[in-house]
Amino acid sequence: MTITKDFIKPMTWQGDSIKLLNQQKLPGEIEFIFLTTIEQVWESIHSLKVRGAPAIGITAAYGLALWGLQSDYTSEEDFRKELLEKVNYLVSSRPTAVNLYWALNRLVQSVQAVHGVEEIKSVLVNEAILIQQEDEQTCRAIGEYGFSLFPESATVLTHCNTGGIATSKYGTALGAFYIAKEKGAELSVYATETRPVLQGARLTAWELQQAGVDVTLITDNMAAHVLQSKNVDAVIVGADRIAANGDTANKIGTLGLAHLAKAFNIPFYVAAPFSTIDLAIQDGREIPIEERSSEEITHIAGTRVAPENVNVYNPAFDVTPNELITAIITEKGIVKGNYAEELKRVKELV
Ligand SMILES: CSC[C@H]1O[C@H](OP(=O)(O)O)[C@H](O)[C@@H]1O
Q1: How far apart are the CA of 237 and the centre of ligand 1, in A?
Q2: Domain with CATH 1.20.120.420 in the chain
Q3: What is the CB < 6 Å shell around ligand 1?
Q4: What is the reported pTM?
Q5: What is the Å distance from ligand 1's center to 290 Cα?
Q6: pLDDT value at residue 348
Q7: Ligand 1 pocket mutation, candidates 250, 255, 314, criterion most atoms within 8 A of CB
Q8: Which atom of ligand 1 is nearest the CA belonging to 237?
Q9: Domain made up of 141-347: CATH architecture
Q10: Atom 12 in ligand 1: residue holding the nearest Cα
Q11: What is the pLDDT along the chain (350 residues), one digit of tens a residue?
Q12: Is 16 annotated in the active site?
């Protein structure tokens, strides 16, 4: 059974708007919104209407292209100057996922040798479309490599949401489960709910259920017990930014899972495209960690569950040191060992 036809496209270029799946409404409602301004794109990324490193990169690229089409510059110099200001504006929506910067920078590079405002506008649109198209094949390849690591009828634990809606299609870590389904392999997945935004409970459980993948939802604080007692064969997670030495920023809670996997001698895999690898930074200490609003923690479904004025710390990501990562699964293969050398070598293949 080929499940790919059933994927919901999380974002679609409409020529004068971006059709976006509003992930804040899932799983109860499948709502599409149409973004018509760069400000709406910024807000959709910041408020997690669209989230997932590759997905926010693609959406930001469409946002920049949309702004270009709507601008009325005659001076190419002025247009280019404002273009860079809009890149910085979009990058400010979320600081951790390097895909946001990677996609926007790719658009800027794509018009370096192009001249004429109208020509530049056209190239920006085409490059953004190309990024989404390429991401589909990239994620499928990651899924194929990820699946190759799992034993027959494996039980796997995953964190947050790294599925088709977090990318252009297939996802990264979840891609392995989709490929398994296509190949008739029956995997069992434990999905952690992933407080505070509940990407696991709301999105991963929903995506895998829709795809007919056996998924069991657990709370984050059950992970140790599950890894200790449920014969889990592997842990696989996504990434938002991977430093040159393999240190990986991912959803808060990932670091704890990596230590638990080590303690229980379970392989710990990171699945990510090369657009998530930032060779410009040497190690995880340089990765900016987004801090989000206290309301994400003090409220559940709009109801206050913590006292007024309580101190809150809400980092959206943590950094897993490379020594806790068994392998990094990319579209160009499975990277192991000396990540500083291997990531650089494999990146040259991309
Ligand atoms: C392929 S999604 C990668 C990554 O993005 C998620 O973060 P967020 O939901 O805040 O955008 C999570 O860390 C995933 O692992």
Answers
A1: 9
A2: 4-138
A3: 51-54, 160, 162, 166-167, 171-172, 199, 237-240, 250-251, 316
A4: 0.97
A5: 12
A6: 82
A7: 250
A8: 15
A9: 3-Layer(aba) Sandwich (3.40)
A10: 251
A11: 445 557 899 999 999 999 999 999 999 999 999 999 999 999 999 999 999 999 999 999 999 999 999 999 999 999 999 999 999 999 999 999 999 999 999 999 999 999 999 999 999 999 999 999 999 999 999 999 999 999 889 999 999 999 999 999 999 999 999 999 999 999 999 999 999 999 999 999 999 999 999 999 999 999 999 999 999 999 999 999 999 999 999 999 999 999 999 999 999 999 999 999 999 999 999 999 999 999 999 999 999 999 999 999 999 999 999 999 999 999 999 999 999 999 999 888 77
A12: no
Which of 24, 51, 257, 289 has most ligand 1 atoms within 8 Å of CB, for mutation?
Answer: 51
Label each residue of the chain as H, E or C: CCCHHHCCCCEEECCCCEEEECHHHCCCCCCEEEECCHHHHHHHHHCCCCCCHHHHHHHHHHHHHHHHHHCCCCCHHHHHHHHHHHHHHHHCCCCCCHHHHHHHHHHHHHCCCCCCHHHHHHHHHHHHHHHHHHHHHHHHHHHHHHHHCCCCCCEEEECCCCCHHHCCCCCCCCHHHHHHHHCCCCCEEEEECCCCCCHHHHHHHHHHHHCCCEEEEECHHHHHHHHHHCCCCEEEECCCEEECCCCEEEECCHHHHHHHHHHCCCCEEEECCHHHEECCCCCHHHCCCCECCCHHHHEECCEECCCCCCCCCCECEEEECHHHCCEEEECCEEECCCHHHHHHHHHCCC
Confirm whether residue 140 is marked as ligand binding. no
Determine the residue of 161, 289, 320 to mutate for testing ligand 1's pocket, defined as the one with the most ligand atoms within 8 A of the Cβ atom: 161
CATH 3.40.50.10470 intervals, the chain: 141-347
- Express each pLDDT in 73-102 by its tens digit: 999 999 999 999 999 999 999 999 999 999
In CATH, what class is 4-138?
mainly alpha
Q: Is 0.90 exceeded by the ipTM? A: yes
Q: Which atom of ligand 1 is nearest to the CA of 159?
A: 15
Distance 76 CA to ligand 1 centre (A): 36
